[in-house]
Amino acid sequence: MSQAKVSSRGQITIPAEIRHELQIKPSDTINFLRTVHGDYLIQRHTGSIMDLKGILKRMGYVVERTVTLEEMDEGIAEHVSEMDRRTLSDYVKND
Fold first, then answer.
1. Which of 44, 46, 51, 71 supports an S-S bond with 67, CB 3.0-4.6 Å?
2. Nearest CA to 45 among 27, 30, 58?
3. Nearest to 29 by CA among 41, 14, 46
4. Considering the entire predicted model, what is its pTM?
5. 36: which residues sit within 8 A by CB, 6+ positions away?
6. Is 76 helix (H, G, I), strand (E, B) or coil?
7. In angstroms, rounded to a whole number, what is the distance separating the alpha carbons of residues 12 and 40?
8. Which of 30, 32, 19 is nearest to 58 (CA)?
9. Buried-state track 53-64, b at ≥16 Cβ within 10 A, e below 16
10. Tens place of pLDDT for every residue, the chain, 95 residues?
11. DSSP output for 34-61
């Protein structure tokens, strides 16, 4: 287990083995990701959308199953329809 001490200015030095493993270089940006359990993960920020692959699992969320595009579209349509119904109910009185 690696450790780092927090300075009086709130700074830490990431241990060399961690920097090497995460390929962290000077001036890189580091992301701190909070998990569902309240822990934090650190990740080098690369700005690539591919970094998000598997993020839910890494953060402790359990993915029950994968869904098809059709199931996603259906879920979105149901949600939009419900939101539309709720919005309209604010303007239309049922007599």
1. 71
2. 30
3. 46
4. 0.47
5. 59, 60, 61
6. helix
7. 15
8. 32
9. eeeeeeeeeeee
10. 889 999 999 999 999 999 999 899 999 999 998 988 889 988 888 878 887 888 888 888 877 788 899 999 999 999 999 888 888 766 655 55
11. E-TTS-EEEEE----GGGGTTHHHHTT-
Q: In angstroms, rounded to a whole number, what is the distance separating the alpha carbons of residues 44 and 30?
A: 5
Q: How far apart are the first and last CA of the chain?
A: 68
Q: Which amino acid is at 63?
A: V
The token pair at 67 is 């869904």
86, two tokens: 């709720």
Structure tokens at 42: 């650190």
Residue with tokens 């349509």: 77
